[in-house]
């Protein structure tokens, strides 16, 4: 698996650690980085050695959002509306959100704009106590453009979403936890170990069943209850026919811990 300079990727014990690696730009997302991350997600999703993905940032920021230097350059040449950042970012957000494998955002510092949105596309979010969240859109006279308007009402409710987006005030980690923007806080120096422990638990679990569960949760909001029950039946049949399903039954019969392989 190739590792572009703007990204670092290391796979250990079924966990792919992906690090945004532009610390001088606070890990801002330019088009090349968006494209490389999209390709890396494809590689990880297809790699049977990868069971879980952890996304974090190098330096003091998780991700500062769109690369404003690239934005300004596009505006200077009259190409702000056509240079392709939004379309490229949307493709990445959709890929991350739709990934089969569990994803964890280990938020090590500021998460602004599309950087915050990147964390929202992950299944689980762990924040260091120094983490800060800021929507970053209305202060630039923009509306959300990387998924915040979809994720935030579902995660924290409509009123809190409007407060975060309209007022554009930075939220500290404690407020983010209280609102439901993240699921867990830890000391800054413990972020890697806490994320690693959670990732290890997921990596040893029935990742085929996780994939079916993720799909049910993603698609369920657009279905009626009878439709969702039919989808659950179909997913359950797939899980029951999987190698992990057979192993779970054997382990229960033999009174031992199961050894899941993700298939």
UniProtKB/TrEMBL annotation:
Keywords associated with the record: Hydrolase, Lyase
Pfam families: ECH_1
GO MF annotation, one: 4-chlorobenzoyl-CoA dehalogenase activity
InterPro entries according to UniProt: ClpP/crotonase-like_dom_sf (IPR029045), Enoyl-CoA_hyd/isom_CS (IPR018376), Enoyl-CoA_hydra/iso (IPR001753), Enoyl-CoA_hydra_C (IPR014748)
EC number: 3.8.1.7, 4.2.1.17
Gene3D superfamilies named among the record's database cross-references: 2-enoyl-CoA Hydratase, Chain A, domain 1 (3.90.226.10), Lyase 2-enoyl-coa Hydratase, Chain A, domain 2 (1.10.12.10)
Family the entry assigns: Belongs to the enoyl-CoA hydratase/isomerase family.
The protein's name: Enoyl-CoA hydratase/isomerase
Taxonomic classification: Bacteria, Pseudomonadati, Pseudomonadota, Gammaproteobacteria, Pseudomonadales
């Amino acid at each position: 698996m190739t590792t572009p300079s703007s990204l670092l990727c290391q796979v250990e014990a079924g966990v792919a650690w992906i690090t945004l690696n532009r610390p001088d730009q606070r890990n801002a997302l330019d088009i090349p980085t968006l494209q490389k991350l999209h390709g890396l997600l494809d590689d990880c999703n297809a790699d049977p050695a990868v069971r879980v993905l952890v996304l974090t940032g190098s330096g003091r920021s998780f991700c500062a959002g769109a690369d404003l230097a690239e934005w300004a350059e596009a505006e200077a040449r009259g190409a702000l509306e056509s240079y392709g950042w939004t379309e490229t970012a949307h493709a990445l957000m959709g890929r991350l959100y739709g990934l089969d494998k569990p994803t964890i955002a280990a938020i090590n510092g500021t998460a602004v704009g599309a950087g915050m949105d990147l964390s929202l596309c992950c299944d689980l979010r762990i924040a260091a106590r120094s983490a800060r969240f800021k929507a970053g859109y209305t202060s630039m006279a923009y509306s959300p453009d990387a998924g915040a308007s979809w994720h935030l009402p579902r995660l924290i409710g409509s009123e809190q979403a409007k407060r975060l987006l309209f007022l554009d005030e930075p939220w500290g980690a404690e407020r983010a936890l209280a609102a439901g923007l993240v699921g867990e806080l830890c000391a800054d120096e413990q972020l890697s170990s806490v994320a690693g422990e959670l990732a290890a638990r997921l990596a040893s679990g029935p990742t085929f069943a996780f994939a079916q569960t993720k799909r049910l949760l993603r698609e369920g909001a657009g279905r009626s209850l009878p439709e969702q029950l039919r989808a659950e039946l179909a997913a359950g049949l797939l899980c029951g026919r999987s190698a992990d399903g057979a192993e779970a039954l054997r382990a229960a019969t033999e009174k031992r811990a199961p050894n899941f392989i993700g298939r």
